């Protein structure tokens, strides 16, 4: 079947969801979120389905994130019923992320090409039998601070649980990393060359029982020598990242980076100066809080935070500058990291709803 840019098949117990929105690099729309949720909810109790594969029909992208053009149009009042649709999108997307994270059957994500933002949310399942596959074309990031947002879709949860300060670095810079970095940071499990993906999928159709993860690891084993996580950028800069991003205060991180003449430190400082100052502060607070929360509570926190982002207008301005007008000159409020105060950060962590009325109150 094909529905709302999602193609689905079931063969020999293997259900397959293929993202197919070529005009938008598989950016997730509300109908796509609903289609994914509908299939996954039905399949978790379907005896005919033993495992799920999610992949893309596109040669260069798994999923570029949420449909930010839609966010911009809605925020400016360009769609009838727009505000309600925006609220529905984030509520349903985060509920989908929760479903995937706790999926009771092997969930196999084939992360070939661009995997960013919302794409990470539908890729990062922590179920023990699930597995994340990267290729030489994988380009992975949580780039939300670049558009005046924060690492959502459970980003606070999974970034805060990466080794050392890798998650803090990725969340506060929005930098893109490749397959070796993803493996090093435990954002992926195995590497398979893109040319071998058809053979991999064919092999999965013959797996019996619940041995999908082992079968994939065995298939990927001959390709380990083609990629070296220990020689990745994140591995090489790990000591520097851990030292500079260990602080719980953005000013301290900036001071630490500024005092380091290492080219990587200086480049990182330059990158952070271009991102939304407010959202860098908010994101650091989110990551630190999320380290002590379960996923459901992280997603409830993020649901409030995203409401506050659109109330403030930072996200709308970021999308305008980078995607709509493409002038690459966002007018951030405030304009610098030094101007952000605790009073500006606090509202992002003040719930927009009482607990009994929270749109994600039923997540557990």
TrEMBL record:
Keywords: Hydrolase. Residues 15-349 form the Enoyl-CoA hydratase/isomerase domain. The keyword Hydrolase applies. Transmembrane segments: none annotated. CDD domains: crotonase-like. It comes from the Bacteria. This is Enoyl-CoA hydratase/isomerase family protein.
